[in-house]
Design brief:
Blueprint: H1 2-39, H2 43-54, H3 61-74, E1 82-90, E2 98-112, E3 115-130, E4 134-147, E5 155-170, E6 177-192, E7 198-210, E8 216-227, E9 230-235, E10 240-244
Antiparallel strand pairs: 1-2, 2-3, 3-4, 4-5, 5-6, 6-7, 7-8, 8-9, 9-10
Length: about 240
């Protein structure tokens, strides 16, 4: 009877150790997953960073596009002429989103048979913003090619490459900080000459981000301009976001 009791006790001890080991393993896995979640850049953060890089409300690509359209329509140029200009801008006092930028523009007008056919704008500089959900300190580089210069055309047509490199600080949830490169490549964006507003067009978007703990994320998507100060961002994984400024 003593031998049987000893064997039973050993079985119970082994079972208890096994349960404890399993529980510890599950707890460790749960904690590890939670830690990973705190380091990973989410689709919502990707969308927020892209949105603020585009939106006029944060001094993004839309502002530079509209400024370029204004320069194309009001600047007196001769064929083959090149000019350099520094453009600075900032948000109005008390705005929900504050921003500032300083951009060095290089402009060249190309003509065909003496008639303007292509306006090229290249710029580099800094663009910073502070929005309710995120703030960022960025450097930007862009090349805009503008056609539709003839007086009979009601719209400019933009082909553009726009790149922003910077560091974002989320203000919500885990309040992550991460660095990113956002590349926007646009084809045939239509800008109304009278209003200098974007009417339509599409662009491909690539987001490459690096967060804490060695985590990185790469997201591709499509940006569609709808007119009336609106656009949509559709990520390739199926997530979709509305942009309005």
């Amino acid at each position: 009877m003593k031998s049987t009791s000893s064997a039973s006790m050993k079985i119970r001890t082994v079972a208890a150790i096994t349960v404890l080991a399993l529980s510890t393993g599950l707890l460790f896995a749960s904690c590890k997953k939670d830690s990973e979640d705190k380091d990973e850049i989410t689709d919502e953060e990707v969308a927020e960073a892209v949105t603020q890089s585009v939106s006029a409300s944060s001094g993004g690509m839309v502002v530079q596009t509209e400024s370029t359209a204004k320069m194309a329509g009001t600047t007196s140029f001769t064929c083959g002429q090149t000019k350099d200009t520094t453009i600075v801008g900032q948000s109005v006092s008390g705005a929900a989103i504050s921003y500032n930028y300083s951009l060095n523009f290089n402009r060249t007008l190309t003509c065909s048979n003496g008639i303007p056919s292509l306006f090229q704008f290249n710029f580099t500089g800094s663009c910073n913003y502070s929005a309710p959900r995120m703030s960022s300190a960025d450097n930007s580089t862009a090349q805009f090619s503008v056609t539709g210069l003839e007086p009979t055309s009601a719209s400019y047509i933009f082909n553009a490459s726009y790149v922003r490199n910077g560091t974002q600080q989320s203000k919500v949830r885990f309040q992550r900080s991460f660095s990113s490169t956002i590349t926007i490549t646009a084809a045939n964006i239509t800008v109304d000459k009278a209003t200098q507003k974007i009417v339509s067009g599409t662009a491909t978007v690539e987001f490459v981000g690096n967060g804490s703990g060695g985590y990185s994320v790469n997201r591709g998507g499509t940006l569609t301009f709808l007119g009336n100060n609106k656009a949509t961002l559709a990520l390739k994984n199926g997530s979709s976001y509305n942009i309005q400024w």
